Write the structure tokens for this entry.
Amino acid sequence: MCVVPLASHAAGTPAGDDITPAERLIFTTDHLHGVPAQTELDYAVVSSEQPSRSADLVKVLVLSPDNAKGDAQVSDHTGNVPLPNGGLQCNPVIIYFLERDISEMQGLTGGQRRYFQQRLRLALAAGPRIETVTSEAGGKSVSARRIVVQPYLNDPNAERLAQYTAKRYTFLLADDVPGQVVLIRTDLPGANNDFAHPVHTETLSFQAVVRKLPAPGKAPPKPSNAPRASR
């Protein structure tokens, strides 16, 4: 079971109906439209608890043009990562990050996985504001849309999660970035709700389109300056 829009679970509700603009932007937008087949998108995941460790590299390999077949593959340092994306059109790196976060929250608190999934769904279904901001991706300035939610805030059932109730999730997406995901970040504020000095952050950020891989069964093209075979 993955984090998906609440409306997609409603009995008799056609897919895409009654979901909020935030849910649509994050989960049901075709983020990989325009990305050619055999293109690899690279993302860095950095945790503030491991400042001396190099960033984990997460790769999204688009196998079909525009990801028309929904077969994009995600991998990290452990290898290929199967994801319960529920047929969503979104960039699968979003599901990767959220599933990773939910697993961490479950391990830290002993809470139920379903609870954390539900709180994220409810926060996005509440219709959070979408702001237009200027950000940076791949060394370039881009116009991005930002969504910020705090899923556990004011939840009466979150008493046992006191140290996590103010946890904030930030999503940045931009049309001009391949795959559209610029950044996803979680912040746990310091004392007195101090987000300027968080006690923990975890960030996934777009790095680059690394290379255009040759399609299966086709030899890579020779460089234009390749030496000619002797006769």
